[in-house]
Design a protein that fits this description.
383 residues; Rossmann fold; Alpha-Beta Plaits; seven-stranded parallel beta sheet; five-stranded parallel beta sheet
């Protein structure tokens, strides 16, 4: 079985696939695919493709909804690059305060001035004065894997941490420092924090999340950090706020033509996950997700299908991706009435659902024909 890669993938991930018996880019129709940043919206996927694993958290480069309709499970790797992004956010906090970047650029202009450099530095350094972060309030919007790590690290650096996440998971709550305060509303973050960092996904609801209306609620001289997605911030409104002095600094990991070169903007060339450790972790996690799904039917960290894991009990496993509509379970079970079902599990996510049935034995072709005839069934596999 072939796994297709759309980007260079760490050997840590490729070795897992090879050890599980898969070939990489052998030219035949793939059963799985691994991708990092390559855009797949114009790709036509073969019928053989069962799953796509994104070695990273964001899946904006993948046609997630189309994949669901074609029975292709899309995975991501949440948390695998969290430490790498956390470290860059911490750097961003310091860069937004101390005008280090601007100072370095200015110091380059002193090249060739010989003995005048020292006095010039002492005279000119006052232009780059900036506050310490200790004792300041950091607002964190989104307390997922990255947000929690940022909160804990900022707390250790002496900052007061206020977080906002209406969908805070139990795991994140357990990992979050007890010193952090949970904001009762997003407005509390805007009105009270000296620094604001956003760690939420980009979708139709969050596009332009930071805009004139939200900036107007913020404290004068606020510093904003965006290491999530560029379009979460309305660039036009942000630039206007910088020019007015409402925002003191904007640090983004997503340069765009309109923000590059703007005074007060520090544009980092998307380095958040650009560490060898992060790339290895993401590739490893993505490969493990593909192997478990293709070989066992289990789904972990999918963005378009329900997460579902079932310990195998029968000699064969029937996996069915179907529409999340009434009577599907009874129709599937009824169609298999002559087969000894040893275990069964079903879960749904939005418009789609997934059922796994462990059976003692079955006629693969007959089962496939029976289930295919059920309206709403999208894909059937017998493992």
């Amino acid at each position: 079985m072939n796994i297709q890669t759309f980007n260079k993938i760490s050997p840590f991930g490729l070795d897992i696939l090879k050890d599980a018996g898969f070939e990489i880019d052998n030219g035949s129709d793939p059963v799985g695919a691994m991708v990092r940043s390559a855009k797949l919206h114009d790709e036509q996927f073969p019928n053989s493709l069962l799953a796509i694993a994104r070695a990273g958290a964001g899946t904006n480069n993948i046609p997630v909804d189309r994949c669901a309709s074609e029975g292709i499970v899309v995975f991501n790797t949440p948390g695998a690059n969290a430490n790498a992004v956390k470290e860059l956010v911490l750097a961003g906090l310091l860069l937004s305060s101390r005008r280090v970047v601007q100072g370095i650029e200015w110091a380059k202009t002193l090249k060739g001035k010989g003995d005048e450099v020292g006095p010039a530095v002492e005279k000119g350094k006052s232009a780059f004065v900036g506050p310490e972060i200790k004792g300041k309030t950091l607002g964190i919007i989104g307390l997922g894997a990255i947000g929690v790590l940022v909160a804990n690290a900022a707390n250790h650096l002496g900052m007061k941490v206020v977080g906002y996440d209406p969908f805070l998971s139990i795991e994140s709550a357990w990992n979050l420092t007890h010193s952090a305060t949970r904001a009762k509303s997003i407005e509390e973050i805007y009105k009270t924090c000296d620094y604001i960092t956003i760690h939420i996904p980009l979708n139709d609801e969050t596009r332009g999340f930071i805009n004139k209306k939200t900036i107007d609620m913020m404290k004068p001289g606020v510093r904003i950090l965006n290491f999530a997605r560029g379009d979460l911030v309305n660039s036009k409104d942000l630039i206007a706020a910088l020019e007015e002095g409402k925002v003191a600094s904007y640090v983004t990991d997503f340069p765009s033509d309109d923000v590059i070169g703007v005074d007060g903007v520090i544009a980092i060339p998307h380095l958040g996950a650009s560490t060898p450790e992060s790339e290895d972790n993401c590739a490893k996690m993505a490969a493990e997700e593909l192997v478990d799904y293709i070989q066992n039917g289990n789904i972990n960290h999918s963005v378009n299908m329900p997460n579902i894991t079932l310990a195998r009990q029968g000699n064969k496993r029937i996996c069915v991706i179907h529409k999340n509509i009434p009577n599907m379970i009874s129709q599937i079970a009824g169609a298999l009435s002559g087969i000894n079902i040893e275990n069964m599990l079903n879960k749904s996510k939005g418009e789609y659902a997934y059922s796994m049935l462990d059976v003692a034995d079955c006629d693969d072709k007959a089962v496939n024909d029976i289930l295919t005839a059920i309206e709403g069934v999208i894909r059937i596999r017998i493992i």
